[in-house]
Amino acid sequence: MKTVLKVCDIRSAKDVVNIKKAISDNEGIIACQIETKNGEVEIVYDNYFVDVDKIIESIENVGYTVI
Hints:
Protein name: HMA domain-containing protein
Helix content: 25-40%
Largest sheet: 3 strands, antiparallel
Radius of gyration: 11 Å
InterPro entries: HMA_dom (IPR006121), HMA_dom_sf (IPR036163)
CATH architecture: 2-Layer Sandwich
Organism: Clostridium tepidiprofundi DSM 19306
Domain HMA: 1-67
GO molecular function, one term: metal ion binding
């Protein structure tokens, strides 16, 4: 599966690292690309292991807001 999430407050390289780590800690994540200009996070994942709700929860648990 592929999904694009809108995440608030991505301003620095540290934010990108924090979000990538939060996402990649989930089993089944294949790829992740973060666009800092528009705050979009594109994720490719295997929905057998993880669903989009779990990915959103992971991002929110490190302090970011997913719209």
